[in-house]
Amino acid sequence: MSTPASTAPITHPAFGDLIHGYFAEDAIADGASHLLDPRLTAEVRLNVPLVLTNAVHADAVAWDRDEAINTADARGRDLLLVMRRAALQAVETNEPVGFSLARVPNKTRSGALSQAEIATTVDLVVRVEYFNATGRPCLVVSQRDEV
After folding, report:
1. Cα dihedral angle (54, 102, 100, 32), rounded to 10 degrees?
2. 10 Å Cβ neighbour count for 22?
3. Running DSSP on this structure, what letter comes out for residue 67?
4. Which of 101, 93, 133 has the alpha carbon at shortest distance from 3?
5. How far is CA 73 from the centre of its chain?
6. What mean pLDDT value characterizes the chain?
7. Which residues have C-beta within 8 Å of that of residue 37, sequence separation ≥ 6?
8. What is the full DSSP assignment across 81-108?
9. Cα distance from N-terminal residue to C-terminal residue, the chain
10. Most buried among 37, 45, 57, 126, using CB within 10 Å?
């Protein structure tokens, strides 16, 4: 998946140069989002940052249970492999694209470690956004109700 990185400032055809914006890079710095480990994205040749909302990270990637069963890296790889087709479509159309991911819950709704051993499905959305004010693209994965 190849999306060219841009270093030019963002310019809107009618409004001109961007004065101020809140980008994925800002959300990561503020703790509102997570950057998936670049080692994992490099494994699938994804050359743009993959940003996860806190809800997606907690629900689909984080793993606080027994590492003999699973790890956060393995769950991140699962997410990357499952979302690949949706990500390609999002890049081609510049529209959000939904996909479903089966995962074993890490925690219960109350925040306690889950004892579940059976996977359930979570519906997610991937979209292309600006990573920072230079116009560098990234992919953002959110839950459907976060779009």
Report:
1. 0
2. 11
3. T
4. 93
5. 14
6. 86
7. 73, 76
8. HHHHHHHHHHHHH-S-EEEEEEE--SB-
9. 23
10. 126
